Amino acid sequence: MAGKELLSASFVRSAPVGKHCDGAGLWLHKRKDGGAQWVLRVTIHGKRREMGLGSFNDVSLKNARGLADHWRSIAKRGIDPIKQREREAREAKRADNTFEAIALEAFEAKKPELKGDGKAGRWLSPLENHVFPKLGKIPVAQLDQRDVKDALAPIWHSKADTARKALNRISIVLRHAAAHDLDVDLQVTEKAKLLLGKTRHTPKNIPALHWTKVPSFYQSLTEPSVTNLAMRLLILTGVRSHPLRFINLDQIDGDVWTIPSDSMKGLKGKTSEFRVPLSLEALKVIDLSKPFQKKGFLFPSTRKGVISDGTLAGLMKRQGHDERPHGFRSSLRTWLAEATDAPNEVCETILQHVSGSSVERAYRRTDFLEQRRQLMERWSEHLLGKSGQVVRLLEAN
């Protein structure tokens, strides 16, 4: 038992069921079904470990002895051979890691930070549409600024915002690769920007109706359809499309609608819910919407889920408007600035914007609910054509 090479090739071929030792911890385990497995027993840090070396059909006696010698030498250095083999397998796998593979891995790691775990797919889309087709198969360690420049050049000026997002995603992927000890150049995106030059694209604001014209549009939505009611509540509350479309009855308590944190647009570090005060007109719209609800969702789609952004945009287009539904947030913000004396921090909170420094926000323990309630009631009166005067914000009790 203490010696080595106790078995022979002929014995291995005809070995009976059981465990047969070749010496120095190498064993052949013969099974009842006729199969057999090479197993190496080693002691590491005072604990015995059994390490499979493969099937005797795939690994000859000679090769099994060679593998056993190799892993025994690893164990003698105080290294767990099983963990070492797993480590080498990971490194071998990463040796030819492509940009696309690392990007998908980075996306998985980033999902908890994204709204709805990134299910909408918008985080990946700039890469899928403009980067993966050209750079996806390149090993990430070989990626350089010329590769990135060539991939983004076709959209650098024509689709500047998409190109900017793609560049940002590439930077995140490279940092993820670096965290795995891959030899990547973290300056690739900055170098690529220098090669691409300054974009000629001029950002355009989302078209919005002037606040003085919003009442006539609002009052045109007389038919109590799902789309009209959703548009009315969107205008009345000033929220973004996503939480509006996914509003559920269980989020409403009296005259307050509480938007869950995962429906809030990605404000870094924001994990809290957001309370929306509901005006009398907003409560009326919600009551009119209740007969349409499915599983509590007030604005269900005729097919599946809830209505889409395109449904709301289509409504405006059919009425001959170039403006977008999201633009009503701008209409509301301009009304707040021009027709009220509300403080900036209250106005910004209405739109779920972060205002002030991090220190100011840390000490500000209010969401201005009562002040916002007054303003949103007056906004609804404006929409109904009941008020043309400047709104004076009353002090909250």
UniProtKB/TrEMBL annotation:
Stretches assigned to the Tyr recombinase domain: 201-376
InterPro entries, sorted: DNA_brk_join_enz, Integrase-like_cat_sf, Integrase_catalytic, Integrase_DNA-bd_sf, Integrase_DNA_bind_dom, Integrase_recombinase_N, Phage_int_M, Phage_Integrase
DNA-binding as UniProt keyword: yes
Pfam family, any one: Phage_int_M
Record's keyword annotation contains RNA-binding: no
An example molecular function term from Gene Ontology annotations: DNA binding
Keywords of the record: DNA integration, DNA recombination, DNA-binding
One GO process term, biological-process aspect: DNA integration
Annotated family: Belongs to the 'phage' integrase family.
PANTHER family, A to Z: PROPHAGE INTEGRASE, PROPHAGE INTEGRASE INTS-RELATED
Name of the protein in question: Integrase
Protein source organism: Aliiruegeria haliotis
